[in-house]
Every structure is written in C-alpha cells, then in structure tokens.
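Hi F.,

I've been meaning to write this up properly since the lab meeting, where we talked about keeping a consistent format for the predictions we share between groups. The idea is simple: the sequence comes first, exactly as it goes in, then the structure tokens exactly as they come out, then a line or two of notes. No screenshots and no reformatting. I'm using this chain as the first example so we have something concrete to point to.
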Amino acid sequence: MNALGSISVIFDLDGTLVDSEPNYYEAGRQILAEHGIPDYTWADHERYVGISTLDTIADWKRRYGLGAPTEDLFAAKNRRYLELARAETPTYPEMRKFVELLAAEGVPMAVASGSSPEAIDAILAATGLDAFLRTVVSADEVARGKPAPDVFLEAARRLGADPADCVVLEDAAPGAAAAHAAGMRCVAVPYVCDQADDPRFGTAELVFRGGQQGFTARAAYDWLADATAAS
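Output, unedited:
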C-alpha cells in the first residue's frame, strides 16, 4: 500500500497533463479548410474540448455537412495532429511535478484519454511522461467515449483498482461527468476557465477555478492526503 492508502489516480491527457488543444485546433482547422469550411475558429473548437476525435468528427459531419467517410477524416486528423504534436506539445509544469510526486509515493497512475492510442503514446514519449504513466487507455478501445464512464472504468480495471478508490484529474466538463458516472472522485482543472460553472463540474470534489494557472502540485497532493485520512 502506498503513502496515500488505496488511492489510484487517473489523468486525462489533453488539456490536463499537456497543452495539446492548440494542436488539435490547428489540425481540425486545416482538415476542415481542405473540405470547404474555411472559417473554423477557436471558439468553434472549444465545444469539442473533452470529446473524443471520433465523436468530434461525427458532429462535424452533422454540423458542416461533410461527405467524406468518417474513417478518412479520422485518419487525416490524427495524421495532421501527430505531425504537430511531435513538433511541440508542452507539459504543464505543476502537473509534471504532481505526477513525479505521486510516483515517488508509489501511487498507481493511469492515463485515460479521448485521443487515439498513437497520439497518446507519441505525447507521453515526447514529454518523458511515459516513464511514470505506463497504464494507458484510449477511448478508441472502449465502447463509448466521455461523458460515458467506459474509459475510466477500463483504466481502473487495468490498474486493479476499485473505482471508488480512484481520483480523476480532468480539464473538461464531459470528463468530470464521466468520472462521476464511473463512481470516482474528480479534481477538475478547467481548460476553459469560463466553463468552471458548468453543472457537470459540480460533480467534482475539487475545482481549480483558475485552471492551470491556479493548480499546484502541493495543493492537489494535500487534498488527496486529506481525502485518504477522511475515508
């Protein structure tokens, strides 16, 4: 048993551990422009934060009337995103500190993300986080993406952890809802700070309303320690 009792920690990847949303936006903007949608904005992109790539493309097809096959759009977006991600994907410094702190305590950890397995592996390898985060689940590997709980439940299964003992770190409201549906506690670090009052974040036990600017590894660790003592 680690110093935090039976707690396991499951991290979302994009917008939580790493600032990858600008790369997702740019990949989406380029693909849509190639399909006759030239005015895709950052505000348009924000509605897809926390949503899997497949679900994003499904909505694109409805919203923009795209005729290309889903599998072609999916492959093109992933390919473009990977090119951008391998060139640069910054890790949030306090999140890296938090991961390292948990690793030093022997806390079981996993990544559960809406990204493809290839994208997750590429980012973890490029940032060096793969040294600490070896249990990885992509939404492509489960039946339903967030806000369904599937990806978090699969992460708990692979860790050999009871969902009730898992704490999820999430930046997006659909992810907070997925953690709640999985029966897990959630620490929310909203990527879009203006969305901190989204009712789905209301299911989180701790919300850093300043987003990554307000998050500190020590504050998150102390909250986990208090949660362990109270359980």
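Notes:
The longest strand covers residues 109-113.
The chain has nine helices and six strands.

If this format works for you, I'll send the rest the same way.

G.
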